[in-house]
Every structure is written in structure tokens, then in C-alpha cells.
Specification:
By secondary structure, the protein is an alpha/beta fold. The chain is built from 29 helices and 32 strands. Strand 20 and strand 21 form a beta hairpin. The termini are far apart. It is found in: Cell membrane; Postsynaptic cell membrane; Postsynaptic density.
Length: about 950
């Protein structure tokens, strides 16, 4: 709270006349002290007098000093000798039990405030600095209890960033001395830039850092190096003497003229030769020691008041000789002091964790002609938003070269180093042969420098991106040198520890194309470079020149043509039902024809040529013949009922055959193999137990995509071990069947699928993104490249590149191939041929069985005939014996009772009529010998001719038949 009330002079005198005996009072019990001695180490009499006056006024301000509490001042004069200052602090301040010390800055020395801080800090007595701005006092390991109402010099980096953001400068060169404050300015600038400026498009980046030793003699060598950089915005931290040398040499090299911007700190602004157009800072109330004294005392009173409410304050140390005493209340009091946030004489007073002043207000100063300093803006505290705010009047600024036009802040080079990488069809690279002098007309020289062995080889490049590069160079007017990626990688990062003055930090280190661009060894990347968040954090991207995503490449599955492919139109159940139906219908036809009165018997008027009734074999033949449409010539049903069933069966067969024919065409002719995978969500990809190998390229944008996606973490861990170094190797393994699924950018995979119709992309695109031209952070070419690419999209140039390089017209060929029917081959119809072969083999097998069976049957018949012949022969022998016996009897009668010849003849005739010789019985056709047919025919003829059968045998009479008698 700003103090505006002044006490009467009598009250002031009363406070000064308080008996010294009160100084010896000590608090009793556990209560906080009723009085507080405040020490002051000041630079002059005026400050000492003001210090006492402020404390006297403080005792009557009930807002800060409760009733019963009194503050007393104890001051000493600061000495330029730090040892004397430390001794005086012990002798005149600590010995009198001071609860805090306010220290000023000796005009000719820098070490006296440090001596006060060391001495008081040893006992944890808080020290409030009112003029010390060096960065060393921010180190709480050394100055453990020091805080200040003035900001350190390096806090001006915060104002620099606001000024750069206001003017839109994103690339700067920082020039600083190599002392503690100079390095602190650089560290503050970089830390605040990355912490407070989330928008990478407006974040200021440091292109170059120029560090010099203090007390310069010449700065020309540094300026020559700065001329080669793109940035023309210089942030300078230097002392007044060093700034003089820098401005002098910069003017000699024309680096203070139009196009160059200098933003400097307070010390450099005070140089005698500051050029026109420089912008500097000036701290408000920087030299107003009295206002800072008042703010320091009121801040201290506010902290003590709050502390007495919350806890008890013990007595302050009283003797420097007792080295073992550490004042714990002083340590806690320092914590209360850091939490103060009040409105004082010097503005809003607050402190950070280091005890440094926050919300310090600055004036923005612009140097005009004749070395006149003009305030063109301010950096002040906005009480409504409770933060600092920069306000600059642009129209009142005079820029270097004594002009009112704001410079661009960057020098745009017209000759760029462009990097690319071999990735078909975007970039084709071929090695230049020994007998070739130059590349072809449609190619560009693109040497490859191998960082592994340091060799450089000449290559020639052409393709989608090369044509795009030529068009960009012609459209936005620049020349270029093209080269291939040194390590053959697009670029991925590794986390590495970096040790700085603050501590160890983890940073991303990039390789490949991205690493070259981040290290500023290249200006442009024209390649199929995927835009993703990790890369965009370190480099600039143009608008996409081609939109794409991620997809999966696999080889088309071969047609599953088995030996029974011709059975595919019907399911197994249907085939079984058809087989059963054939035989059931045949059986019913046989039964109907058998039991029908018109099927079993012939009509009386027939001529004897009508076919017999349908038997079971003929019925089965008829059913199969109708089903297979073979045409039946015989064995058809005779009855009306059976023929009605036959017509129904013919209709059934027609429907079955037509359905089979239609489905056969669909299965064997128009069928196209589908992809094995349905996309990234396919369970076989997500399930690590499946034997399905998938991979991508190590360190690529696709690899980064899988790292980011938590739901794909299991899949990524599985495929990480299979990842390839290049896309070429992976695609070749897919063709060879070694890799089942390759996950990569859709543009490349669509190109491969259009070139080889055996490859196919599976599923829909995921992880959609685009290819962009890569540029350095803050590159002046970013907007020009983006506008040119947008114009190329509108004019159809990018579409023409797609047709020329990516599709090559092969997509239409593959689509036409997909739509045309397949030509059936042996693979498809092998089962039918095997079926015919099986029928032939079966027929041959059956005929062999029939022949073997017939031979066996003939052998059996021969044995039966032999046995029958033997039986007939035996029967004939028996008959002969009987005949012989009869003949012998007759001979005996003849010899004995022969009376006459006539009687003998009659007897003989009687014998013939009694025992006629009959022919053998005819054999049935089944039992006849092959030669018996002629005999049977002759027998019939004889029988029909004579009217009676021939004699069975003609007896032969021999004179001597004794040898026939058994």
C-alpha cells in the first residue's frame, strides 16, 4: 500500500527521543518481541536520514505495526572495502540484535553488498538489497537470505521477448559478455522463450550466440561471422565500455544501417556512440534510493506482522563470535518476505523463488537523431490482468538508417541448400556412371556424402519431389544445391542428457534430414516428409503438397483352388441331398413301374418288339441320365405314374443344373481374392499370439505414430523387432512372402500396388497427415513456399504430378484386370479331370474284376463239365456192361438153341427193338460244350426228318468180346 500520510514533526521527534533503555528490553516467555531493530547499510547521509524517517513514520501506521510493537533504525555507512563492511555489520548491527538489514550499493564497488549478505546470511538474518542487480545475488546457495527490490540485469530478457513478439521477429542473434550476468541473460531468454511462448510460430529462436570477453579492443571478427547469418536482429548485453567498441565497429561494417535491428540493455544504452534507431530499456526508479528504502521497510513490516500472527519470533542473534548460532526465526522470516505482493513507491513489489524483484517496470527508449533518447513505450504492470504488459507506439519509432519503416529483421538468401532422400516414386536416385559426365535433362545432380566413411558419390535424381523443387525455384525465384540425406534417414530423435549450469536436462537429438535442418546445415527439405507434432516442434513445415495417411501393404492371397473346386457352388449338405434324391427317385420309379398294371405286362396287340418293364438298374440309370442331361435312349418308365415322377425329376434336375452352372461361374470365373487383413483394427494384428508378421521403417513418422498411440502399444512392441531400415527392403520381403504386412505411407504403397497387381493395400487409411516441405525455424521462405504450393494445388499442377509419377496409368490396368473374368485353368478344373480319370480307372478296374471273375467262373464250369463228362462216361460204361451181358446171354442162347438162320434173324431184330440205341440227352445251353451246338442242330434236323429220335448207340457184334468182360 502506497504511503501518502505524513506524520507531524513532533511525532517524529518523540520517536527519536525514546529512552535507550528500551533497547535493552527483552521479550519474556514465548511471546514475540515488542520491538524490532532494523539495520541499514547505506551509501550516504541522505539515505540514512530517510531510513530513520521512514521507520519513525512506520511506528504510527497501524496497518503495518500493531499496537505494542515498535521499530528502531540502526544504520552504518557502506564501505568500498568489503572486509570493513563485514566487520561493521558485526560490530554495529548484529551486536544490537537487528532482525533484518537493508543494504544499498556503493557507487564505486560491487563487493560491499555481497559482504553484508555473507555476514548476515551466516546467521539467517534477512538482507534486502535496494540497488544490487548482479546475477550472483540470485544464487541462494551463496546468498541464502538475500532479496532485492530491484530486478537483476538478466530479467531484461523478459522484456526483449515481449518486444520481439510485438514486432514479429522470430530469429535473433544474442551478443553477450562471458561473465555471469551475460550468461544469465542468455539462459533467461532461452528458458522463458520455451516456457511462456507455446506458439511455435511466434516463438523467438536464437540463430547464433556471440560471446565475447569483457574489455574489448575490437569486435570486427565477430561482426564478420554475424554477416553470414540470416537474422538481422541483434540482442546486446554489454557494459558501457564494451558497447562503445561494438557500436563503433558495427558502424564501420555498415551494420547499423537500415535492415539491422539493435535491441540493447540499460548498460549498452548509456554508451556515448549509440547509433540512431537503437531500442533500449531503462528501469523505472532505478536510481531512486529513497523510494526503494521505503518499499523495503514496509515489506519487512508486513512480513513481521503476518509472522507474529502465525508463530512466535525468537530473539535475533547478538554476537558474531558465537559461530554456532543459527536463527531459525530469521529463516522463516525470509520465507514470509518472499511471499509479499504490495503496491509501493516503485510499483508493484513481489519476489520470485530466488528473492528477485518481479513486476519491475521499464521504459522502452528509442535513440533518435543527435543522440536523443525518446520514450516510445513502456513495460508496466496491469493491475486488472495482474501481469506485465508491453505498450509501444510504433509510429514514433525511428529505425536504423533514420527511417520510419520497420525492417524485416532477416536477410533472405537466394541460394539454398536443399536435402532430399530416395523414396520411390517421389525421388529416384541413380549413381552416376564412370563414363557419364552429367545427368540427363530430366535429372538433377544430387551428391551423397556418407557421414560414416566420409566419401562423396555423385547421384542423379528425378521424380515427383524433384519436379516440385524445380517448380518452386522457378515460382519464388531461388537457386539451390541438391544433396541426398547423409545417413539415408528421414530423421528421428533420441533423448540424451545435457549438463548445463542449472543442472542436467534431457533434450531430443535428431538425425537424418531433420537433424541437418535443426543444425542449420540445410535450408530446405523437399522429400515425402510427413508432418507430425514431434518434427513440427523443431522445424517449420509448409502446407501439405500431398495429403495421405498410413495403410497396410500385403500380397494378394493366392486363389484357393483345390481339387474339389468344382464342388464349391453347392454346400456339402446340398450335395448329399442331391445324391440321396437321385437314388430315392430311382427306387420310387422302379416301384411305380413294377406295381403299375401298365408297366409289368405286355399288351396283347403288341408285335413282340415292345421293351421290357423298368428294372432297378435301369431306374438308377434313368435318374442319373436326367440329372446330368445325358439323353436317355432306353430304360424309360412305362407307367403313367412313373412318367409323371420322371417329369418332376427332370424339372428338379433343370433347376439344380442351372443353379450349379451360375454359381460355378461366380466361384471360378468372377471370384477375386480379397485381402487377408481388414485394416489396423484387425484382430490378427492386435493379437500378438497370431503368427502374422508386420513391420514399418525404424525411426520414421509411422514409427513415431505407433509410439504416440497408447492403444497400439502392444502391437508396436511386437513389430518393433521386425522393423526395417528402408522401405525398399520391406516391400521386397512382402513380394517374396517373407513379410505379411508392411505399414507405411499410403502414397508409396498405392504406387507399389499400382505397379504390381499382385500387391494390395488393406483397409482404410488411418493416421491421416500430409507431406510438407521442411524449413528452418523462422525461415523467411516459409510463407513463399506455402503460397506457391497452394497455387500449385489450384492450378492442377500437383494432380499432374500424381498422374505422372505415382499412378503411371497402372491403376486403371489393375482395375480393368480386376473387373475382367479370370481365365479358367487347370488349377480350377483339375478336379473335373481327376473325376474323369477316376471314372476311367474305375471302369478299367471293374473290367479287370469282371474278366477275372469270368475266368474263375469258366474254370469252375470246366470242372463241372469234366465231372459231368466223367459221370456220363461211367454211365455209358455201365450201359455197355449191361449190353454185353445181354449179348453174351443171347450168344449162349444162339449157340445152344440156334435152329435156323431165320430164327436168328428174328431174334436179332427182336433184340434191336427191345434195346434200341438212343442218342445222348441234349445238354442245356448253360451246360453245353462249345462244340455241342452243331450236334444239337443235327439232332433236331434228324428228329424232324425221321419223325423219331436216332438210336442211342449201334451195338457192334464181335466174334470175340471176351476182352470187354470185367
Amino acid at each position: 500500500m502506497k504511503l501518502t500520510r505524513m506524520l507531524p514533526a513532533s511525532c517524529m521527534l518523540l520517536s527519536l527521543m525514546i529512552p535507550q533503555a528500551l533497547l535493552a528490553q527483552k521479550p519474556t516467555g514465548s511471546e514475540s518481541p515488542s520491538y524490532y531493530n532494523i539495520g541499514g547499510v547505506l551509501s550516504n547521509n541522505e539515505s540514512e536520514s530517510h531510513f530513520a524517517t521512514v521507520i519513525a513514520h512506520l511506528n504510527f501506521d497501524q496497518q503495518y505495526v500493531p499496537r505494542g510493537t515498535t521499530y528502531y533504525d540502526k544504520t552504518i555507512r557502506i564501505d568500498k572495502n568489503p572486509i570493513k563492511t563485514a566487520l561493521n555489520v558485526c560490530k554495529h548491527l548484529i551486536s544490537r540484535r537487528v532482525y533484518a538489514v537493508v543494504v544499498s550499493h556503493e557507487p564505486t564497488g560491487d563487493l560491499s553488498p555481497a559482504a553484508v549478505s555473507y555476514t548476515s546470511g551466516f546467521y539467517q538474518i534477512p538482507v534486502i538489497g535496494i540497488s544490487s542487480r548482479e546475477a550472483a545475488f540470485s544464487d541462494k546457495n551463496i546468498h541464502v537470505s538475500f532479496l532485492r527490490t530491484v530486478p537483476p540485469y538478466y530479467h531484461q530478457a523478459d522484456v526483449w521477448l515481449e518486444i520481439l513478439s510485438h514486432f514479429g521477429y522470430t530469429k535473433v542473434i544474442i551478443i553477450h559478455s562471458s561473465d555471469t550476468d551475460g550468461r544469465a541473460v542468455l539462459g533467461r531468454f532461452q528458458t522463458t522463450s520455451q516456457t511462456n511462448y507455446d506458439d511455435i510460430d511466434v516463438r523467438a529462436t536464437v540463430e547464433s550466440i556471440v560471446e565475447f570477453e569483457p574489455k574489448l579492443d575490437s569486435f570486427s571478427s565477430y561482426l564478420m561471422d554475424m554477416k553470414t547469418a540470416q537474422s538481422r536482429v541483434y540482442l546486446l548485453y554489454a557494459s558501457q565500455e564494451d558497447a562503445y567498441v561494438i557500436f563503433r565497429d558495427a558502424a564501420i561494417h555498415n551494420m547499423t544501417e537500415y535492415g539491422h535491428i539493435w535491441i540493447v540493455t540499460e548498460q549498452a544504452l548509456s554508451a556515448n556512440n549509440t547509433p540512431t534507431g537503437i531500442i533500449g530499456l531503462k528501469l523505472n526508479n532505478a536510481e531512486n534510493e529513497t523510494d526503494h528504502i521505503k518499499d523495503a521497510i514496509y515489506i519487512l513490516a508486513s512480513a513481521i506482522k503476518e509472522m507474529t500472527v502465525n508463530e512466535t519470533i525468537t530473539e535475533a542473534p547478538k554476537d558474531c563470535d558465537d559461530s554456532g548460532v543459527i536463527w531459525e526465526s530469521g529463516k522463516r522470516l525470509f520465507g514470509y518476505l518472499k511471499t509479499r505482493n504490495i503496491r509501493g513507491e516503485t510499483g508493484q513489489v513481489a519476489f520470485d523463488d530466488n528473492g528477485d524483484r518481479m513486476y519491475a517496470e521499464y521504459d522502452v527508449i528509442n535513440v533518435h537523431e543527435n543522440h536523443s533518447f525518446v520514450k516510445v513505450g513502456s513495460f508496466h504492470y496491469d493491475s486488472e490482468k495482474r501481469k506485465m504488459r508491453l505498450k509501444i507506439n510504433d509510429s514514433s519509432i525511428t529505425w536504423p538508417g533514420n527511417t520510419g519503416k520497420k525492417p524485416e529483421g532477416i536477410m533472405i538468401p537466394t541460394h539454398l541448400k536443399v536435402l532430399t532422400i530416395e523414396e520411390k516414386p517421389f525421388v529416384y536416385a541413380r549413381k552416376l556412371l564412370d563414363d557419364e559426365i552429367d545427368c540427363a535433362d530430366d535429372e538433377v545432380v544430387c551428391p551423397h556424402f556418407n557421414i560414416t566413411n566420409g566419401n562423396e558419390q555423385e547421384y542423379c535424381c528425378k521424380g515427383y519431389c524433384i519436379d516440385l523443387l524445380k517448380a518452386l525455384a522457378q515460382r519464388i525465384n531461388f537457386t539451390y544445391d541438391l544433396a541426398l540425406s547423409p545417413d539415408g534417414q528421414f530423421g528421428h530423435y533420441q533423448l540424451k542428457n545435457h549438463t548445463t549450469g542449472i543442472g542436467t536436462t534431457v533434450k531430443k537429438e535428431w538425425n537424418g534430414l531433420i537433424g541437418e535442418l535443426v543444425a542449420e546445415r540445410a535450408d530446405l527439405i523437399v522429400a515425402p516428409l510427413t508432418i507430425n507434432p514431434e518434427r513440427a516442434e523443431f522445424i517449420e513445415f509448409s502446407k501439405p503438397f500431398k495429403y495421405q495417411g498410413i495403410t497396410i501393404l500385403e500380397k494378394k492371397p493366392s486363389r484357393s483352388s483345390t481339387l474339389v473346386s468344382f464342388l464349391q457352388p453347392f454346400s456339402n449338405t446340398l450335395w448329399i441331398l442331391v445324391m440321396v434324391s437321385v437314388h430315392v427317385v430311382a427306387l420310387v420309379l422302379y416301384l411305380l413301374d413294377r406295381f403299375s398294371p401298365f408297366g409289368r405286362f405286355k399288351l396283347s396287340t403288341t408285335d413282340g418288339t415292345e421293351e421290357d418293364a423298368l428294372n432297378l438298374s435301369s431306374a438308377i440309370w434313368f435318374a442319373w441320365g436326367v440329372l446330368l442331361n445325358s439323353g436317355i435312349g432306353e430304360g424309360t418308365p412305362r407307367s403313367f405314374s412313373a412318367r409323371v415322377l420322371g417329369m418332376v425329376w427332370a424339372g428338379f434336375a433343370m433347376i439344380i443344373v442351372a443353379s450349379y452352372t451360375a454359381n460355378l461361374a461366380a466361384f471360378l470365373v468372377l471370384e477375386r481374392p480379397k485381402t487377408k487383413l481388414t485394416g489396423i483394427n484387425d484382430a490378427r494384428l492386435r493379437n500378438t499370439m497370431e503368427n502374422l508378421t508386420c513391420a514399418t521403417v525404424k525411426g520414421s513418422s509411422v514409427d513415431m505414430y505407433f509410439r504416440r498411440q497408447v492403444e497400439l502399444s502392444n502391437m508396436y512392441r511386437t513389430m518393433e523387432a521386425n522393423n526395417y531400415d528402408t522401405a525398399e527392403q520391406a516391400i521386397q520381403d512382402v513380394k517374396d512372402g517373407k513379410l505379411m504386412a508392411f505399414i507405411w505411407d499410403s502414397s508409396r504403397l498405392e504406387y507399389e500396388a499400382s505397379k504390381d497387381c499382385e500387391l494390395v493395400t488393406a483397409g482404410e487409411l488411418f493416421g491421416r497427415s500430409g507431406y510438407g516441405v521442411g524449413l528452418q525455424k523462422g525461415s523467411p521462405w516459409t510463407d513463399a513456399v506455402t503460397l506457391a504450393i497452394l497455387d500449385f494445388h489450384e492450378s492442377g499442377f500437383m494432380e499432374s504430378l500424381d498422374k505422372e509419377w505415382i499412378f503411371h496409368g497402372n491403376v486403371q490396368q489393375c482395375e480393368q484386370f480386376e473387373k475382367t473374368p479370370n481365365t479358367l485353368g487347370l488349377k480350377n478344373m483339375a478336379g473335373v479331370f481327376i473325376l474323369v480319370g477316376a471314372g476311367i480307372v474305375g471302369g478299367i478296374g471293374l473290367i479287370i474284376i469282371e474278366v477275372v471273375y469270368k475266368k474263375h467262373q469258366i474254370k469252375k464250369q470246366k470242372k463241372m463239365e469234366i465231372a459231368r463228362h466223367a459221370a456220363d462216361k461211367w454211365r455209358g460204361t455201365i450201359e455197355k456192361r449191361k449190353t454185353l451181358r445181354a449179348s453174351l446171354a443171347m450168344q449162349r442162347q444162339y449157340n445152344v438153341g440156334l435152329n435156323s438162320v431165320s430164327k436168328s434173324v428174328q431174334s436179332q431184330n427182336a433184340e434191336k427193338s427191345r434195346y434200341p440205341i438212343l442218342p445222348p440227352l441234349p445238354r442245356t445251353p448253360e451246360r453245353a460244350w462249345p462244340k455241342d451246338k452243331e450236334y444239337i442242330v443235327n439232332r433236331k434236323n434228324n428228329s424232324s426228318g425221321a419223325g423219331k429220335p436216332p438210336p442211342r448207340y449201334m451195338p457192334t457184334y464181335a466174334t470175340d468180346v471176351s476182352h470187354l468182360i470185367v
